[in-house]
Amino acid sequence: TAEITELHEKIDDVASSISDAEADLKKAKDVRADEAANFASEEKELMEAISSIERAIATGMKPAASFAQKSSTQGVMQVLRTMIDASALNSYDSIKLTSLLQNARDDDLGDDDSLDGVDRSAPIEALEDLREKASSQLRDARNSESESRHAHELLAASLKDKIDVDKKELG
Questions:
Q1: What angle, rounded to 10 degrees, do the helices at 121-170 and 91-109 form?
Q2: Among the four residues 10, 79, 85, 128, which has the most C-beta atoms within 10 Å?
Q3: Taking the complete model, does pTM exceed 0.85, yes or no?
Q4: Is the pLDDT reported for residue 53 higher than 60?
Q5: Measuring CA to CA, which residue among 54, 58, 38 is closest to residue 148?
């Protein structure tokens, strides 16, 4: 009778261990799914921001005063809004670039289209810096996603192995 009681306790312990491991595996899968969704969203935003910045840079590199044209400046301002919304710009970068673009827009609205005294390379340089920051954030996000996916795979394999061992012990 004592032996039967001991075996029942062992069965209960192993069954509980299996149940706990299965619950942990389910939680790990749920967390991983959330992480993957967050990464996909972040990657999409960063790729869109980089693409927008690259288009703005290409527009700014056209000859003459095309960068200061109202439509170009508005396009770059839209890029800034997107970058700010995606938190790819810190406040200082945002203020600095907005100021540069505002100067370009003010010059565009003035009577003199020659842009004398305006450093047309400053907004382009600022955009190139932003592109590099966004690219760096994208690389970091991708590396983090890879590490997270790998850690999940290791945890899932470990939990599945534990479940298999415990089931064999019951069988």
A1: 140
A2: 79
A3: no
A4: yes
A5: 38
